[in-house]
Give the backbone structure.
Amino acid sequence: MSDLTTTQRIDLLKRCVPELFARPGHVLYVGANRLWGGGMQCVPELLKAGHEITLLEVWEKNAQSFKPGKEFEHIVIGDVTEIENVELSHDHYEAVVWWHGPEHIKATLLEPTLKRLELRADLVVLGCPWGEYPQGAISGNPHDRHLAYLYPADFMLMGYQTETLGTIDTRGSHILAWKTKE
């Protein structure tokens, strides 16, 4: 992933969801890793905005690559699709950021998972590949497989606003989706 693509994604996020950076709060960041370098986009910007970030990571090896207190104030091992069974650091968050992650669960689990996240936060922000982008396990992580190919309509049907970068079904393409609690 090039720096230009990362920069474009962050610029899109800042333009479309400025409230994420408007004031500090508690953020639940779903899924991050150091093992292959791509799994922490937008974390530096969230830290600059003054957020206290809790990491929710499903694969223990990824979670263990972090120490509490640097990027993430709290590190929790758990599955976002079963968030009601996960003991988090806070009952409520100003925002949930699930950045390049929705494609890692089955499409049938997306809506119920998002509804659970919406109960936990005032704002839910998602980033994922736009369309068909096959990917297997990376660094031995079985959760890195892409199990769903997602499109803006998938999120819009659930009340999310969306913007895209790139070209549908192309490596590096991106969907940004967000929903603010009414």
Remarks:
- The CA atoms of residues 32 and 86 lie 17 Å apart.
- The chain has one domain: 3-180.
- Residues 3-16 form the longest helix (14 residues).
